[in-house]
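Quarterly update, task 2.4: malonyl-coenzyme A-bound model.
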Amino acid sequence: MFLDALADHCRNQPDKPALQFIGGPPVTYGDLARSINRSADYLLSLGIEPGDRVAVQLPKCLPFITFHLATMQIGAIFLPLNPAYPPSELRYFLADSAARLLIADAEDQAKLDPITAALPHHQKTAYIHKPGDSGADWLLDYSAQRDYPLPSDPDQTAMMLYTSGTTSRPKGALISHGNLTANIRSLHEAWGWRADDVLLHALPIFHVHGLVVALHGALHAGATAILCLAFDAAEVLELLASRRFSVFMGVPTMHRRLYQLASGRRIDLSHMRLMTSGSDRLPDDLFFGYQETFNITLLERYGMTETGMNLSNPLQGERRVGSVGMPLPGVSARIVDPETEASLPDGQVGEVQIKGAHVFKGYWRQPEKTAAAFSPDGWLRTGDMGMREADGYFSLKGRAKDLIITGGLNVYPPEVELALMRHPAVAACAVIGCPDKEWGEQVVAVIIPQHGARVDEAAICAFCREHLAAYKAPRRVILVDDFPRNALGKIQKAKLRAQFCT
Ligand code: MLC
């Protein structure tokens, strides 16, 4: 499994750099093994047992990575949390997951202690001081050699990743060791990961893209990942041009910024073995712009939190503009009529459904939602609409579910609508996504104010930021007297989009 492959690399190439944060020292595979051991010792000293949830809310740093790997190694369930979550979201994730332990940045103690004090399952918050530098020293300064048995049951849950829902609060998607391993093996084969690859890693590490596809990909291959603390387009472009790297993965917003920064200059990046784009549709102009400016063809792929990666354009062969490619090895994909779930012929648009050993186990303590996520014959309903061409390439054609993607992050309108409805000046609201060149889509709130209420648009946006992570907050507020509704009284968001997304 993935952890076995990593353990082999730690044993066989202890002096090779596994990770390096920009500006920091290299962390060899030997160092990584020791720091995982130290993290595991610590977790065990607190009585953390297999199946316990360990939540980690840290910036991008070595302790995040070692506690991630150590938690999975001792059979507990790793729960990453975005440091941008406001207290209300954080409280929900910690309460719903019933996490026993939270590992967090000491700088956040004043914010976190009042939240965790009221949580019945919460046992401890381990605060790390300066997790980016001195916090990492604590982990590296360790010589104990342990041989913890690695989890051997592929069905054992390794991670829990929250995904928002169209009709409910966020759900914890349970990802098993077998799921992770199946997906990383598919990607290893499809993308030709090599031990001499050097990954430039500029994604956040609390999502499947940055954590699993990018970081696990490099560690599984015994390669080296160089990590930027955040995405700075100028820094990333300079690094990419330096010829040190062979692999880079980004979301379209990142690629857009890199492309705009080049502003017509030709910068040859053809030494890059692999540059991928995902988490949102890659616009055609960016695909061609990259070819023109950087002499490289981006490889677009398609995945989701519940599965990891599903489809990919080929490493060798045609990377087709507007297409997310073909099923990865071991993955099956079909297009079905969204009503009847009957398979549709090539060329027809329907829901994309997925099957394979990489597909998640289900949602934490939500058997009905888990059942609803699958067709009667066991295919995962992705909620994405797509089409298969006769030669096997798939393309995405919209969404069956009400979802906005901004900067590669999913925002579920009902979640934003719920927050808006808590504002006293809002009588009714509908949240829509409007196309945006930089972000892909922009969150827009259409509001009917309470009778006689004065609505301050800036105050509404600020109010949302108190209750939701900033990327979910509306960028624009539009006031209306009424909504277009269908015969059943349902708000017709397509009409709102047509009217207001200009
Ligand atoms: C930041 N902001 C966003 C945003 N990210 N707003 C909307 N959408 C986003 N995605 C806000 C900030 O709060 C800030 O608001 C303002 O935008 C400017 O911030 P910034 O400094 O310019 O943003 P930056 O930190 O550079 O972030 C942009 C980004 C980041 C594109 C680098 O969003 C990012 O890392 N996206 C990748 C997300 C990702 O990893 N997705 C994978 C999910 S897994 P203000 O007003 O306070 O200034 C998945 C499965 C799969 O989807 O297939 O991969």
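Highlight for this quarter: Residues 203-204, 207-210, 230-231, 251, 253-254, 278-279, 303-305, 406-409, 439, 470-471 surround malonyl-coenzyme A (CB under 6 Å).
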